[in-house]
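It is worth pausing here to work through a concrete case rather than discussing structure prediction in the abstract. The textbook approach is simple: state the sequence, then state the predicted structure, then interpret. We follow exactly that order.
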Amino acid sequence: MSKMKGLAMLGFDTIGWIEKDIPKAGPMDAICKPIAISPCTSDVHTVWEKALGERHDMILGHEASAEVVEVGSLVKDFKAGDKVIIPAITPDWETVESQSGYSQHSGGMLNGWKFSNMKDGTFAEYFHVNQADGNLAHLPDEIDVEDAVMLSDMVPTGFHGANNAEVEYGDTVVVIGIGPVGLMAVAGSVLRGAGRVFGVGSRKKCQEVAKFYGATDLINYRDGDIVDQIRDAMNGKPVDKVILAGGGLETFDQAVRMVKPGGIVSNINYLGTGDYIKIPRVEWGLGMGHIRVTGGLMPGGRKNMEFLSRVIKNGRLDVSPMLTHRFSKLEDLEEALLLMKDKPKDLIKPVVLVG
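Step two, the predicted structure:
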């Protein structure tokens, strides 16, 4: 067999099934077949918001647990038949950017993000993983394959938001957007010791799960300006940290208006539309308020997957409440992706079991 099928972006606003050659492994690479896959809001941004520009016949997807079917001659730690976690970000580890601590941008801005950005992704019968020894992680027996999919992107991105915010013991943290990434930002903030966590979102299911992960307060943006609501809850005082995991460009303005001098605004939201981010001059201390605004793509690679898998393996984190919709065959991917686009009220994250 030399051909495979995959769910692709055919062009702006259009997805469909296509046939392509099965990819080949270079000396350091691996070919994998998915066991479990999950679509992401990032796929929605890419196809329907035109966030990355034109992509024609590019197979979508960047979240999967998988089985290795072939490895290159120089791969040392993996072999055919191994069950693995696939990180959404698979850097080129020999680059200057990787050596400088920014592997996500190996070879250029966002170039560590290869699946469904620079090359075909995981929504296929087979997919290619570059530099397998650095970008695959063995799947522990104690972790279900569907839970492992959350380690591809949702857990590391949410935790990265908490890490970049430098959440400390006792901090008051606001997480704007409590979809799956925001929920993991709540969980990550709690694990880092946050004393109070506001979760901002309107969907009841997401609010319920935010409480499960440790949110102490829930704010619904449909009830009025979230800055006013949080200020009221804080008796007029600012918060320590804000993590942006949803919403649009307006969230930066809101975050700066609610955070304290010396606080941190940490963005992990994929900004799919718009041209400029506005920062309120006065609330930013006329540019001198020591309010740090940062944004970062999640770190990828093997080490991060192995470290985070310990958190699940040893009972520190249960990702199963996020998995609200389950499908049983590859062909269901299209329906699952459209669910992420339409976001029904009972949805957090769909998973497609194909192994």
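Step three, interpretation. The radius of gyration is 20 Å. The CA atoms of residues 125 and 189 lie 36 Å apart.
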